[in-house]
Specification:
CATH architecture of the largest domain in chain B: 3-Layer(aba) Sandwich
CATH topology of the largest domain in chain B: Rossmann fold
Low-confidence stretches of chain A: 1-7, 333-337
CATH topology of chain A: ABC transporter involved in vitamin B12 uptake, BtuC
Mean pLDDT of chain A: 85
Number of helices of chain B: 9
Distance between the termini of chain A: 33 Å
CATH superfamily of chain A: ABC transporter involved in vitamin B12 uptake, BtuC
Distance between the termini of chain B: 53 Å
CATH architecture of chain A: Orthogonal Bundle
Strand content of chain B: 25-35%
Oligomer: heterodimer
CATH class of chain A: Mainly Alpha
Radius of gyration of chain B: 19 Å
CATH superfamily of the largest domain in chain B: P-loop containing nucleotide triphosphate hydrolases
Number of helices of chain A: 14
Helix content of chain B: 25-40%
Structural class of chain A: mainly alpha
Helix content of chain A: over 70%
CATH class of the largest domain in chain B: Alpha Beta
Structural class of chain B: alpha/beta
Number of strands of chain A: 0
Largest sheet of chain B: 6 strands, mixed
Number of strands of chain B: 12
Number of domains of chain B: 2
Chain lengths: ~325, ~270
């Protein structure tokens, strides 16, 4: 027992990750089976592995529904990973890209390209530029504190508010058709995704996972103070730059697919921390939880009031807010910072 | 300590500053090998800043900290972490972290991409929890421990790094007398095993008892350096802390003992 506890990786985290992976798989299969045409889960699996004999099922699953579910899975994982990285770097559980305005800025830039401000770059690229701009501004305004402390968060809040206002101004100034086209960007929806931006997200997420693996040891030491991390051989500046860059990249790419879906970046890492063993940053569990959260929220949005569809961002807000309040209010010694 | 190869640490005319405020200027110091060095002085004299400078937490504005004769800020961070361990003054750990988890972090500088937890890591871990006497606590969460136990766990992490050099910033500041003695005796044992140790100590009496070498600082300058028996005098105490005292010698250890300590303008009754 004693020896066993010393071997790594630890069993609790492995079990948690396995359960989350099953949850993602279950959510994906159920999500694929539900819709205007109901398809049995067994048939869904056959359609996915290409052994179905029902051409309608194969078409509905692989051509109509799969791309949306994949987009949800990837963007949920990306948002959650981005959130977990930024929380770690800032040593603050509130410091997620959504809270500090990166989502909003990415949205503002994407809307600018959709409503035709004369900027003819793809929304994905624009969202990425927006995310990077917001981060750079927050950094600049936070001064020498870098990602540490409240200055970065407060600066980000301000930038987010300005970006949100800019989005509203743009939407109020353009023709109603343009505003409608841009609407999904403002609430967060998987309805409007473009195939190209999903592919870019898939590539970006894969690359980000590889880089994250390379800095995971350094990230783990950031659970301690700077002096302890340095004493353990962590290159602080490099870790911060790489981690923040990944967080911005993942957020920008996810927003370009699904818009600013709120609270995934906050709640998925929170859930991951609850189920995994303390002492390591639960990056894998956070990404899996984010993917499951997003797919389930989109499923609810599509089916609850069918045929009326509720954008996924509204579902995550409705489901997520009470959970956030519960985290804040539950009797626990866990501090927020 | 089979892996305690030796290493030297020295400050070569370093200037240390917080932003534009210079804390210490032109300090030079070489830590005597396999000895405990205590850095003492009044509040704000720059002793913690000097220790953090030596530990490469603060880069000097001028001069250089030399690890085995090379500028510590030019050496790869991981290489430095295999030679020099630090226990900062205030330590926070993630909630629920166990003593074992904490001590394992001490092996981080010895691990890598391809090099996961090895036999060698396990041996270092076992020795560290043994040395710091936290073997029975490895599965306990840090936040459930007493102050003394927690401090021993942090020291165990630094010991697990298996570095020839160990720097400690006020290792006993929040501890009661019994726990203070425990930590100082642990530090002394580590010296017996060949480690070169430097610590900032608030309490001059403890520094006299447990240090082989003493560095007295005031206003960012080193004003005296030597063994406690050589340098501690009523005049030094007066200069450092502005108080009068008399000096005796501890009959048990021969180290200096301060008695009748009082403010200057008040005569004893």
């Amino acid at each position: 027992m004693h020896r066993h506890a010393l071997t790594m990786p630890d069993s609790r985290t492995l079990v948690a990750n396995a359960v989350l992976l099953l949850l993602v798989a279950a959510a994906v299969i159920i999500s694929l089976s539900m819709g205007t045409v109901q398809i049995a889960p067994a048939e869904v699996i056959r359609a996915l592995i290409g052994t179905t004999e029902d051409p309608t099922a194969a078409f509905v699953i692989n051509e109509l529904r799969l791309s949306r579910v994949v987009a949800g899975m990837l963007s949920g994982a990306a948002l959650a990973l981005a959130g977990c990285l930024m929380q770690t770097l800032a040593r603050n559980r509130l410091a997620t890209p959504g809270i500090i305005g990166i989502d909003n800025a990415a949205t503002a830039f994407a809307v600018a390209s959709v409503v035709g401000t004369g900027i003819a770059i793809a929304p994905s690229a624009m969202a990425l530029v927006g995310a990077a701009t917001a981060t750079a501004l927050a950094f600049g305004l936070a001064g020498a504190n870098g990602t540490r402390g409240y200055r970065f968060i407060v600066a980000g809040l301000g930038i987010g508010a300005i970006a949100g206002a800019v989005t509203q101004v743009m939407l109020s100034q353009v023709a109603i058709d343009d505003a409608n086209a841009a609407y999904p960007w403002t609430v967060g929806s998987l309805n409007a995704r473009s195939g190209a931006s999903v592919q870019v997200l898939a590539l970006g997420l894969a690359a980000s996972c590889l880089v994250t693996v390379a800095i995971v040891r350094a990230l783990n030491t950031l659970q301690f103070s700077d002096p302890v991390a340095i004493a353990l051989g962590t290159r602080l500046r490099r870790t911060r730059v790489v981690g923040l860059g990944l967080s911005v990249l993942l957020t920008g790419l996810a927003v370009s697919v699904c818009g600013p879906v709120g609270l995934v970046a906050l709640l998925a890492p929170e859930l991951a921390r609850t189920v995994c063993r303390p002492g390591r940053i639960p990056l894998t569990a956070a990404a899996l939880a984010g993917a499951a959260f997003m797919v389930i929220a989109d499923l609810l949005g599509r089916t609850l009031f069918s045929p009326l569809e509720i954008p996924v961002g509204i579902i995550t807000a409705i489901v997520g807010s009470p959970y956030l309040l519960w985290i804040l209010l539950r009797p626990s010694t866990r501090s927020l910072t | 300590m089979s892996h305690s190869n030796t290493a030297t640490l020295a400050a070569d005319r370093i200037t240390l500053a917080h932003r534009r405020f210079t804390v210490a200027e032109n300090l030079s110091l070489t830590l005597p090998s396999a000895r405990v060095t205590a850095i003492v002085g009044p509040n704000g004299c720059g002793k913690s800043t000097l220790l953090n400078g030596l530990a490469r937490i603060h880069a000097p504005a001028a001069g250089a900290v030399l690890l085995d004769g090379k500028d510590i800020h030019r050496l790869p961070s991981k290489d430095v972490a295999r030679k020099l361990a630090l226990l900062p003054q205030e330590n926070t750990a993630p909630e629920g972290l166990t003593v074992g988890d904490l001590v394992r972090f001490g092996r981080q500088p010895h691990q890598g991409w391809m090099k996961q937890w090895s036999q060698e890591d396990q041996q270092a871990f076992d020795r560290a929890v043994q040395a710091a006497d936290v073997k029975g606590l490895v599965n306990r969460a840090l936040d459930t421990l007493s102050g003394g136990q927690r401090q021993r766990a942090w020291i165990a992490m630094a010991v697990a790094q298996q570095t020839p050099l160990l720097l400690l910033d006020e290792p006993t500041s929040a501890l009661d007398l019994g726990h203070q003695i425990e930590v100082f005796e642990l530090i002394r044992n580590l010296r017996e095993q060949g480690k070169t140790i430097a610590m900032v100590v608030h309490d001059l009496a403890s520094a006299c008892r447990y240090a082989d070498h003493m560095v007295a600082m005031k206003d960012g300058k080193i004003i005296e350096e030597g063994s406690p028996a050589e340098i501690v005098s009523p005049e030094l105490v007066q200069e450092l802390y502005g108080v009068s005292c008399e000096l005796l010698h501890d009959p048990a250890t021969g180290s200096p003992l301060l008695v009748n300590v009082r403010r200057n303008n008040r005569q004893p009754a």
